Amino acid sequence: MPAAVASNRNPIKRSKFYGIEVVDNVTWKGWEPGAEYTKNIVLKNVNVRTQKIKYNSPSSRFFSTLYPQPIVLSAGTSFTLPVTFRPLEKNVYEDNIEFETNEGIFSVPIRAVLPKHELAVPDQLQFGMCAAQDSVEVTFEINNISELTTPFEWKIKEPFTVVPPEGTLDPKSSCRITATFRPKAAVVYETTAVIRYGHDLSCFKTVKLEGIGKYPHLLVVNSLVSDDDKSKKSKKHLDNLNDEAVVNFGKIAIGHKSEKYIELQNLSPVNAPFTVDHPTGSTRIDTVFTCQQTSGVVPPQSLVRIPVVYAPQIVNEKSVDYISVQAIGNISKTVVKLVGTCKGPVVSLSQKVINFGRVDIDDKQTRTFTITNEYDVEATYQFLIDCSESVFKFEKLVGMLKPKTSETIILHFLPSHPINYFRRVTCLVQNQDPLFIDLIGTCHSEQVKPAVLQPKHLVKYRMHVSRGFSLFPPEQLNELLKEGKLQLDPEGCLMMQQAESMEEYLQAPQPIPAMHEFFDDGHYSDKPHTKPHVTLDTSTIDFGQCQNLRLIEPQTVNVTNHTKGKVTINWMTQNTNTFFVTPATCDIPPLKTFSFQVAFKPGVPNQFFGAELECYASYKSMRDYRLVQDETFCPPWCLTLNTVGHTFQPGNETFLPRFTFDAQKLVFPAIDTNETTFRTFLLTNTGTTPIHYAFERDPSNTYSIKPSKGLLTQKHQLFVIKMAPKTAKLHRHMLKVKLNDAEKHIHDVMLLGSAETPSILLDDEACLYFKPTCSGTQSQRLYKVKNISRTPLKYEWRVPPESRPHLSVEPMSGSILPNESQSQKWTFIPQEHKKYVLKPYVYVYADRPNVDLETTKRKKFVLRVLGEGSSGEIRAERLKINFSNVVVGSSAAKEIIVYNDNDCSLHYRLAIEQTIDGPYPDHETLRDPIALELDEMEGVLPARSRNIIVGTIRPIRRVDYLFNVTYQLQTPQGKQVNEAVPLCQVKATGVYPSLAVTDARCYGSASGVSKARLWSLFSLDNLNVCLDADPSSEELMYSVITRHSTRRRPPVYTRAILDFNFGAAPVESEDCIVHLMIENTGAVSTEWAFLFPTDLQLELEYWAETGEFDEDELHEMRVMDNKLFSVEPNAGTLEPGECQTITFTYKHNFPGTDRLPVLFKLMRGREILLNFIGVTVDPESRYVHFPSNKHMFYPVPIGAVANPKQVYELYNGGALPVQYELDLTALEYIKQENYNHKVFQCLNPRGEILPGRTAFVEWIFSPLEAKTYMVDVPIHIVNGDTALITFTGVGYDKRIMGDTMQLTDQHDLTGVPAIQSVPVPGQLVYLSQERVSIGNVPLFSLSRRPIYITNRSTSHVVSFEWYVTSEADSQVLDIQPVSGVLQPQESALCKVTFIAVGEPSFFDLDVVCEITDETEMAEYRRELADWEAEKERQKYEFTITEKDLQKRERNVRNCVQLSRQATDTTERSFSDSDLKRYQTLPPIRPQKTEQEIDEQRERERKTETGTPLWNKPQPPETFLLHLGITARTHTIAEFQSNFPNEVQNFFIDRSMSEKQGPGVRGAQPEVLLGPCSPEERETISFVMANILRGLLDDHDFHEALRDIHKEPVPYFCQFSDRPTRTTSIPRMEEAASVAEEGPGKSPMVEGSPLLSKAATPEVIPEERAASVESTDKKIPSKPSSVAGSLIESRASVKTVSISEKAFSPVADQAPATPTEDATVIEHDETLEEADLPIARSPEEPEEGAVAEHSAEILASRAAETEIQYQQSMQEEKHMMDRQTLKRLPEFGCFLEAIIENAIHNIVLEASSGTVNLTARPRMVALPPKPPTPPSPQPSVPVGATTTAPSLRISAASSRASTRAKTDADSQRSESQRAESAGSKASHSQASRVTISK
Predict the structure, then answer these.
(1) Which of 70, 735, 852, 1300 is deepest in the core (most CB within 10 A)?
(2) SS3 content of the chain, % helix, strand, coil (to 5)
(3) Is the pTM of this model over 0.70?
């Protein structure tokens, strides 16, 4: 129960001011004027030092204190200051006392207040949560803290109340208030209660009240469900009134009780009060279920059990009752159905007939039989026979059988008369129908021997009784049989002759019910069950009280013979008995009566006497067996007479009866009128004396009992009570029994029963309403019928024939128990759009066995059914539903909401059509099951409603699924109403969790490995393929969590096995660190993990470990124990599109090859086995790392003229140089097999590999056929191992393969990313691309690619320099600029030029860019200068002591050594700067341990004298960037054939082929140096060392090296004279030869006189071009061959010199001076003619045409002056010279250089932000041109154009301009800057370009 908030009374507060603790204030209350009141202010020093305090007295005269004086308080001490208050009148007084310390001032308020009304109430009350309509109470107190009597009154709103609402509080008293919260609904209640108090209730305070109302939520939990209701849920919600929870008690024995519980579960957080209602508990007479609890409360989140007791009363009756459980406020209600069945005993006898056979008189025969209780209920039995008076004597007549037990009864036969004996003894069983046993026997004497009675005679007798023959004596039947009037049936029984055709007559007689056979004997009922043969007029003779024992008057009993023959009566009595009959034997004629005397002769007084006298009557003819035939044998009849009497004398009371009844109330089952029902009743004698009983007769004759009078001598006496009502009503009778013939011993037994007619109650006043239903479909409703009678009923529904097509009910018939409610399912099927009114009816009648429907009473009830037919359709809320991506093997669910907007319910069926779009063939996908499952494929959609259908998709493939969902309206029988109608469309995509490696980086010992090689070592292409493939079912068997095994080697379920090769490095090298960036390329989140063997193996106990470890297991254990391989992180989860970097580390700790299997597992995805492989090389070993023993060449087409050259790489992973040699013997065998054709050709089979370097073995694969070639080539390592490598090549036919096998540079065959994604620690500079694909390139052409290099640092300046990894790469590759400096956040553009020379080849080049942090380098230089200064200081500064003078000499030598080391370091620094460009990879050296490094540093730190030395600063490490370049070169003819559309994209310079010179393909390089002896080698080394040392010591040489970069760029002669051929334009070969001869050799060509003096363009000789290039920094490892020189000169200079001579009108005119030479080239014409891709020399018909044209001109212009003629000839000559110039290869190269330089400048300016290439163009007015300075050149001839400033275009100039932008320290002349500006201006303005000498 929530508690109220505590009161707000606060204690006295103390505060601290500057280390002084004092009260907050001093207040006086309850004072009177004129008095004096004193209070103390205590000052306590809580500081750690002594404080001095000053204070002021109060300003008011009403407050006084001590005279102010300083107070000194030590640490922890206190001072008490008294304050006195002296009031004079009733006012409020306020003042304060001010205290001053060294740290500050504070004051203490003092005041006196008047008394006022004040109550202390809580601020708020929290009631918590409470059930609606329930209440919760909170108790709290209000305190009167004033000194006045205070009245109060509450003002509060519902649902809150307080008690008491008003009152009065004495001073300083309190009152307990009870607040009640009673919410009406489930809402949050917040209100404020106001309490007014005071004299006139003017003061008030508020209390915030908060409470939450909640609806209770109860569940009836029942775990015991009947078999019929197993399909129902055991948990029912109370909010559904139609649901029923069933409590089945099962079968309970009569007289016992069973208790079960109804569990109420409260799921709400509040108390849930409830009530229990049992409507029939007090209204029905046969209520067997009782529930004592009528109400209760279920605590929150708990259970409450309600006990229900079942006490059955009637055997074999199934009882039904109902209990309703209702929550508080009628919020919810449920009905609990109680079901139970009463079971009684099942007792049976082992024999039905006991035949004693023939027994002589006075002999004894014994038989036994067994009585068995077959059920688990106790049973009391009693045989109704008096053994003392009968010839059949039972040793036990009464007993009780335990459940499932048996008992043997011994029976004796003592006949006293020679007759036949037959008696049918009744065995009464409590709560069971009686049992019967037939006892037969025959007694013979010497004189009389009757026929022996057999059991078969009894069967015939019963048949004769049913046919009426038993009333005739046997002799008459014999006569009739002889006369033929009777005959025998097949069973040997008599029958009438005319009865053969009477089937009913021949049928066996119906068995008589046991109760009727026992009860209907003619005495206790008016109608005996059979026609009597011999009867007694009474069944009981009561002699009553006999006072005179000697004079007891006998009584008479009459015996009547009802047969047609004479019968003989034999009483089994003797005169010596207490009761006897006289005469004992006599004959009675047919249809006559004879009277017998029954005498009572008691022997003792005051006793009860009783006996059952036995009499046997038989036909007279049965006395002798000779008179009897077997066919007409008739057994005797046994008659019994009960006699009672007692001899109690007057004044003597009878015995006190000690007895018990088994029930004080007997309830009879309900029956119809004129029917009978029976119940057994047990009287138990608990005393030792017999009990005389006598039951009063029912006046209405409704109830009767048998036996009604008698003497109980045994322990038990069973009675049978019969109810036979005459009217239909409740029959209540008080049965009275007098015991021991005493009025005071009369006891009552209540008898209850009813006669009822069948009656049921139809729900809703016998009306059934159906909602509107779609025509052709159906609507169903449950209609409840209740049996309001006490008898079980059967019902039969009848539907009129005209209504049967529209209405049906299930079930049509059945049984309904008393008080039971049943629901029938009614189905309404309209066929038309109209309203229907139907009237079915039901017949009900009593449910009894063997009911005759024709004669039984039936009652009819009519039901009125109303319905309406309609039409409609359904629709989906969303026509398209997209499940998006679903992982294969999992499931995803979404709701498909369908609507029915019509007035009728619709019965529908859904269908799904699946369409699969994916890479799988159709014949496989067609067999796939439908991946979409709907939880409801058919159903009924109610009117104006919606239905949520949950669609679950379970994809089994990685494909796109499309599902078309359609529906069909149908009838209840499944008949289609309409065609399929589209409902919605569902889309889904089956996916697997996928990852992809998008980038890879390495450093450490693998810093020299390029990305392409790393991609190959780690098999990343195959890894991505495997990750993108579909997993197998075995891979999906386990997840990351369950992937464990007890084996030492866990099993592998995947075929995807890849190698992660970490390469090789010497021992103690840096760790090989590889970064892989993985990206979730799928659409679902991916959980991944790297599982090491220890992660997969379950830890076992020591005793479970078996066997020994093999070598592989020991090796794995060593690798894992030393953590040679590590992965960080080893697991994670990536969302779609996310990336993560994984670091793989391999430590080179132990020599040898280390392997470790690691499982790469994706949750619900692939499982890939990764073999981690790492090699650690011994420093003294020579080792070449072979990642694989197989190598595949690129496919080559057959029939090619020149096959491309391919490369195989060999990597030296050791610390020593390696000599290798390939054994080419296998190639000869391949050659012989292919008609001496070199299929495989190795160009350099031997060579040397430096440590950490890669050798490129060149191969040519030339297939003859379209097939696969394979050859095994041994590779021998000198002083090392030999590896056998399998080389494989594939030849294909282009005519067959077509476009499927395209010629590429093979960059598309690998997935190496071009852009870096993984950052490396310490990386400052990034490349825009790390992989550049040149593609297919024709020979003798150039291809260019831009690369941006960016410094992403914000504070560091860096420098870069490009290096090639192979000298051969420099012949085909050029990068400009080679080096440069990048400021923070600066980018630089590098132009990569690929020069296609040599043979057709595949190129995969690796270029290294070395990055130096100049900021750290500057710091290093500063530290190095300080170190050198300190070294110089210590070199000349020393201390002289007298101790150990020899140490001084050693110190001097140490200084000299340090000086030499410094000199050597300086020399090496210079040499390193020059040679550094040739080092592609950092040296690989063994790493020292930390201890060795510390010892070395300690030795270096101190000299022998103990003088400390600084550690020499180390230069910062450089960072390497790798740039990969792929290309494939083709011959010109091959390129034109395979790529005709791309020819125009390349400029082919044929002069490159001429300058390359003829060469033999595949020839070995000529060795110029011969072998030399060691002495020669030593001499040469010594001489060269002295020369180099001299240069290094030369100061002038050092100064010259420093000033090289300050010198201006030299300009060389760009033009020279060369004679022009008059006949034709020179060919490419001739132009090349002329270029080689130089300007001094210009032979004249004979020809036309007009062209004899013409000049021809000439290319600058390569010597001069080389001189130009030598001034600039070159790419390291530049070639020196002819082809390389040609390429270098062409790539760097690209200059053309054209000289112009003066033209004269005559042929022998003197040549002009060189200064007058000029040539004007129109820029527009140059661009027009520059479109030719190849510089060729076509045939020119201009020679003859020009001559004819010149003649015409001379003829037409004969009248003109000589000057005009010369001018026209000069113009024509200019035109022809232009055409000739445009056809020269040199002109094409020159034009290409112009365009290249222009584009390069534009890109540079755009990248620097000077030009915006994407901005809209606009017109800008150019400034006026500056005046041209006078020059010594002659005036331009007529028709020429004014020349612009000369432009020199060269690679050197572009590099110089780039350097000018990046190098801030470089100095350039004003003329160079002006020329550079003029060059840019000429390009940007696109004006005419004049090239002059």
Answers:
(1) 735
(2) 20, 40, 45
(3) no
